[in-house]
Description:
- The chain is α/β, with parallel strands linked by helices.
- The chain folds into two domains: 2-94 and 135-214, CoaB-like (Rossmann fold, 3-Layer(aba) Sandwich), CATH 3.40.50; 98-128, no CATH class.
- Helix content is 22%, strand content 26%.
- The protein has five helices and twelve strands.
- The protein has helices at residues 27-38, 68-77, 138-141, 157-172, 203-211, and strands at residues 2-7, 12-13, 19-20, 42-48, 61-65, 85-88, 95-101, 125-130, 146-152, 176-180, 188-192, 197-200.
- Strand 9, helix 4 (157-172) and strand 10 (176-180) form a beta-alpha-beta unit.
- The longest helix has 16 residues, at 157-172.
- The chain is globular and about 60 Å long.
- It starts with a strand and ends in a 16-residue tail after the last helix.
Amino acid sequence: MRCVVTAGPTFEPLDAVRRLTNFSTGRLGSELADFLAARGHDVTLLRGEQATWRGEVRARRVQTFTTTADLRARLQALAGPAVAAVFHAAAVSDYTFGRVWNPRRAGRPAKPGRGKLASRHGPLLARLVPTPKIIADLRAWFPRARLVGWKYEVEGGRARALRRAARQLAEYHTDGCVANGPAYGAGFGLVRADGSCLHLADAPALFAALEAFLRPPPAAEPGGAPD
């Protein structure tokens, strides 16, 4: 089946040489893409330019993305009913730069992503604005696909991480959400749209559970009455 996997971080440019990004290595998403490809699926891997993981790649197609807007455009270009699943593991920047200026140079705001802001001019002030949530558009772009998002939590404990994963499911109409990070602790929690939650001890167990989203539901027993 045709699958799309995103992995690694996006970045947002402050100027032509400085960037706002995160610590995502891209390893989990890349290894998921390898697992699915080894199982015979037709996989497109979208991997962040800043991803530090450079292991073996088995995906049929690999595209490199940069900013959040670039990842959005690449996903939208792949949109259509032929995609069976999207596993959105990329660590997308929550913020991008809005107005950037130097208090000593009043009235002369810089345009993010251009030129080089000189440190000799002293401290900068920057306004951070939220980036649009890519996951909010996945259902419109991939109407027949199984959609799985990620929720990486740092604080609050496992129960809170799972609640936030369940909230993501409800808000964006996805089929599953993987909870992980320091708040969740060891392993992964896979929250599903039917309200169930699986604890997976390691990445191989998670990958097998995610592949199960691609299987058709079991056929009804012969002679069974409809619900």
